[in-house]
Amino acid sequence: MTLEIKHLGKQYGDKKVVDDVSLTVKAGEAFGLLGGNGAGKTTTIRSVLGLLEYNQGEVLWDGRPFLENRPSVGYLPEERGLYPKETVSEQLTYLARLEGMKRSEAQKALKSWLERLGIAEHEQKRVEQLSKGNQQKVQIISALIHNPDLVILDEPFSGLDPVNADLLASVVKEQIALGKALVFSSHQMMQVEQFCENICILKRGRMQIGGKLADIKRSYGRSNLILRSEADLTPMLEGRGLLDIRRDAQEWTLKVTDEVQAHELMRALGQAGVPVLKFELKEPSLHEIFIEKVGEAV
Amino acid sequence: MKTFGIVFGYSFKERVRSKSFMWMTLLLVAVIAAIVLIPRFTGGSTAASGKVAVINTSGLPIDAKGLSAAVSPAYDWKVVPEGELAAQTDLLKKEDLDAVVAIRAGAEAASAPQIELSVNRKDDAGFAQNLAAYVDRLNVNAQVGELGLTSEQSSALTASPAFKLTELNADGRSMAQTFMPVYALLMVMFFMIYLFAGNVATSVAVEKGSRIQEILITKVSPGQLLAGKVMGVGMAGILQFAILFGVGALLMKFGGSGEALTIGSLNFDLSILGGKTLVVCAILYVLGYFFYATLFAAAGSIVSRSEELNQSMLPVSMLLMAAFFLSMIVLNDPNGTLATVGSYIPFLTPMVLLTRVGAGEPAMMEIVLPIVILALSTFIVGWLSSKIYRGGVLLYGQKPSLGTMLKMLGTSGKAARPASQSTIKGANDAV
Lengths: 298, 431
Known about the structure:
The complex is a heterodimer of chains A (298) and B (431).
Chain A: E1 2-12, E2 15-26, E3 29-35, H1 41-48, E4 56-61, E5 64-65, E6 73-76, H2 88-98, H3 103-116, H4 132-144, E7 150-154, H5 162-177, E8 181-185, H6 189-195, E9 198-203, E10 206-212, H7 213-220, E11 224-229, H8 234-237, E12 243-248, E13 251-255, H9 259-272, E14 276-282, H10 286-295
Parallel strand pairs in A: 3-8, 3-9, 6-7, 7-8
Antiparallel strand pairs in A: 1-2, 1-4, 4-5, 9-10, 11-13, 11-14, 12-13
Chain B: H1 2-17, H2 19-43, E1 50-56, H3 64-70, E2 75-80, H4 85-93, E3 99-104, E4 114-119, H5 128-146, H6 151-158, H7 175-209, H8 213-219, H9 222-254, E5 260-263, E6 266-269, H10 275-301, H11 309-330, H12 337-344, H13 349-359, H14 364-392, H15 402-411
Parallel strand pairs in B: 1-2, 1-3
Antiparallel strand pairs in B: 3-4, 5-6
């Protein structure tokens, strides 16, 4: 079970909103589709699902055109959508049945999902009566109730408090473990780093960077240095060509051009007899990579 | 096809369980009950009948039998002696009588008799004209008798003109006969199409406005979604119609006054709506509904929020209203050129053809051909609407207009995938 997008292009008039995007999502893997607002994430997702016609490229599922060999899809759109006046049970059963589930199966699955997400008592309430967070849970159930092969989650964490975000994180991990192919679009880089093996970052419809997250990070080198000391390190750090020196209480973060420079600094600190409690050389976080790739020319 | 069934069932259930459906059904049942039953209950107490005391001092041969036969059989006439005038007037004041009539001889010799009619309300004096004519005739007879003419002379004087009504087009329907039933059918058709087809538009706009559309479209093709919705809501309409028809028929059978209904002074002779009219009517209702429902659905699909719905429904509503008004106009001349031509124009067909069948005499082909044209156009309109719908349901932030609709027709026809489906690679990557 593999989703492949090859050289996907979509334009409105002369404006290219998606330009030559290629990516592969395998079963049991979460793919992070990242980008700023208006980068083309949602357009890409809609093109994949056949909600929009695209102008170039192709979308394949298991090597065959997606719309001819359509898998069962669980879709959580960015703009949430439910029938506000219908009960939770009524509309989730309806949506599940549209995916080929029998009514009894759908009701059984519904019960277990409602329990899993802790909203069993709201089964017979109308969606408009629920809080935003609970509506979000209902929306998530609507995407997963029919046990889809391909799960596409557009900003799944928005609107959830930390407790519920953790709950959803466990659900997402479970879906990955169940062997689903998962496309994950988010602005929250923490979550993407937590789940996604492969990512791509879009900017104005073009892929800025793509591939294995670990490889991408490695390609940036370990350029982030974190130091912790009870002494004042600032005089020691200045005048060495180190960049972006920032101090938070007893911690200093800074950028080194390469690891050699970092090792030289450590030696210098040792020779000066400054007591260092922490010395950590790190790859850039996805957050930083994102800012660099998307933020530079905005 | 399976998803169509699920959408159909859901749309049907949603409509039938809605509050507006329930209230509309109850309201219409109440209206029908009122139309059928009120004339029956009020009929006995209005001016059409009652008790009348007659005091006759004119010397003319007036008796209760004659009054009943010549003036009005609905009243209970009693001739009372002159001395009771005051007593009878008291009874009238107490509403125990409906009228007191005093007929006296003329003041001068050979002058006409005087009639004094006392009632509590003018409404109760409906028989006044007949009474005057009756007294006049008796008076003429009496005067003629006094002249001592021969029987030929007297009969020549008092003879009434011979009156013979000949209906040249014996099978034809008179305006008076057909107007009300056909008018009622047209009204019902207009409201049923407007309400139910309008419901389709609302339902589409709600799905779009609540953004559930985007999820639905990944599960069901737009064509099936549209068809399921249109048919589900249509079936709810048929159910409502059946309820109303059933209640109406029951009330007519057990509580009404036969096949003729009277509302105010208007007569409904429902018997003219024979089998053929009802069959054609049913076909036209169904086709008319589908024709307009798919158009309304297209209108609903181009709005971003349900508040904009009225604006986008307007062009379609205008077509529907044009059909309604034209059918009213041609009701006067259901066999004329306007009616005949109109019945072939698909968006006018449902109502204009109904007028023609109900009030005119179209030939068989003149009924079948417009229906075939309407059926074909319904398919074409359905197809075009599903194209607009397909493009419209995911389009937000556009001003709803005819222009948007046309743009949808132009851009959304192609399948949502590029023309070239190149070689299949990557199948080996599948896990």
